[in-house]
């Protein structure tokens, strides 16, 4: 992880807005492909100087809906990012592209693989047409199956399917069938998220008005265990509370992030987190306004400080204790757990002693275990489903 960075490219354009979504994306009839690519290129050159000698280990193109981009436009975007890298670095990258069913076909996947993409993440979300309709998705089961099949046939090293569980009235047996059907299609990775309704979304409004009721915590816990049981049986092991992979198919990009590694974010609303010289770690968020981002990237020149681009961008210095808390929060969600020494080193002496006691308490309660002479903290099967609650103790 030392001297490694990940690169995230945000393409914030969608055809329509899903009712549960609060991601930074815009409903766009026309996407400014060339201008946006040029802006990403300009920002990449700016950010690389800040990342110093660090070599990228992964590029993740997310959104939004990257599959609204024709393959040739995505290929030239990827080429702009890999152009300044050494041949060896470029060849060793994990390059992921997110895609939604219906936008994509076999040639689209094949062309991207020929450009070095070796991982696809398909927004399947469900394999039931009624549930897909409830989720406001543009595709049906047949589109989803066709997209996953085409991605697998493209020869990409790994194919992930995103799945949402916990829609109103969903029965465990339906979820079981969906999981088996996806594994049968040849996926090597699955991300399963419970449906949430963030404030301000259409779904949260429907819940507030009493039109929709989401499953309670017990039902969700049952479904979480079900997902884990079925996928375990089918050879996809959990490595994070929502992520499952066949051996050798864990997502390198996300692991780097969960381990607290530095990352560059490129694009409107993109978030990055890097060391800013001797000012410590800084998280920046670019403006979410696409026109504002394009103008800011065009005018960008290496600033003295690490900043977000555009009006309304955010620069957030991360005090060491906050870094330690975030590392514990993300690390406890992984089956590898948290490597404690560098985390404890971030804390002042008095807090370090308190954290030692909290760790001992978790072990005594059967929520966690330690290994490697107490240096590695991992949650047990009891603690793992409650990772977020456990992490709150450190805040
Ligand atoms: S496609 Fe994805 S990013 Fe776009 S609105 Fe739907 S959930 Fe949000």
In short:
With 395 residues, this protein is α/β, with parallel strands linked by helices.
Describe the structure in your own words.
The chain has 395 residues and is α/β, with parallel strands linked by helices. It folds into 2 domains: 4-257, Aldolase class I (TIM Barrel); 320-392, Arc Repressor Mutant, subunit A (Orthogonal Bundle), CATH 1.10.10. The chain has 15 helices and 17 strands. It has helices spanning 33-50, 71-82, 87-92, 106-114, 129-134, 141-153, 172-184, 202-208, 217-233, 252-258, 290-299, 320-331, 340-344, 349-364, 387-392, and strands spanning 4-11, 13-14, 26-27, 55-63, 94-99, 119-125, 158-165, 189-194, 237-240, 243-245, 263-266, 271-275, 281-285, 314-317, 338-339, 368-371, 376-379. Helix 1 (33-50) packs across helix 11. It is globular and about 55 Å long. The two termini are 25 Å apart. The mean pLDDT is 94. The structure holds iron/sulfur cluster. Residues 14, 17-18, 21, 23, 25, 63-65, 100 line the site of iron/sulfur cluster (SF4).
